[in-house]
Amino acid sequence: MKYALLTLIIVISSAFNSSSYTGGVNFQDETWSAAVKHAKAVNKPIFAFVRTSTCRISARMDQIFHDPKVAAFFNANFVCVQIFTENALDNIRASNWGATGVPTFFFFKPNKEKIYTFSGFREADAVIKEGETALKMMGLKSNPGKIDPNAPKNKKDAKDDDDEDEKEDKE
Q1: What CATH number does the domain containing 124 carry?
Q2: What confidence tier does 121 reach under pLDDT thresholds 50, 70, 90?
Q3: Could you list the residue range(s) of the whole structural domain that residue 86 is in?
């Protein structure tokens, strides 16, 4: 009982700790149609990350999307959504867009016009360049965004957190 209470206190206190880094790309937790409405309302293009929950390369891209520069860039320039192909409707949608594997990344205008696609793993700077290419193709200027001041200062800080998560998963 003492351990349960201690765990509860730690969870609650960390939830209210504004200095902890929760960053990363702000993938909207909404349906595709809601994301399109949101994109139209804020007048931003859409970035769709097509993936599965079991793909190791998609998991590596998750780490890239937690890079402070990547997060700042994508959050400033796009409405971002994840499309999980385990969901039958999303699988059909991604196939109709032309996805033949995961991860695949699509850029759309708010009116759902597909503009640009790339697939496979990219390092942080390369993924930003892909986003800049998509914006340029839409005639838009890129905004580097503001980096979260609570973000890890280097890749090692973020990697250490990921290593701890992997150790816990193995136990």
Answers
A1: 3.40.30.10
A2: very high
A3: 23-147
Is residue 52 a part of any domain in this protein? yes
What's the CA gap between 168 and 64, in Å, rounded?
21
Which pLDDT belongs to residue 83?
96
Listing DSSP states for the chain in one string gives -HHHHHHHHHHHHHHT-TTS---S--EE-S-HHHHHHHHHHHT--EEEEEE-TT-HHHHHHHHHTTSHHHHHHHHHH-EEEEEETTSHHHHHHHHHHT--SSSEEEEE-TT--EEEEEES---HHHHHHHHHHHHHHTT---------TTS-SSHHHHHHHHHHHHHHHH-
Q: How many domains does the chain have?
A: 1
CB distance 103 to 61 below 8 Å: yes
Mean pLDDT of 3-24: 42
pLDDT in tens, 59-83: 999 999 999 999 999 999 999 999 9
154 pLDDT tier (thresholds 50, 70, 90): low
Question: CB–CB of 96/88 below 8 Å?
Answer: no
Does 166 map to a domain? no
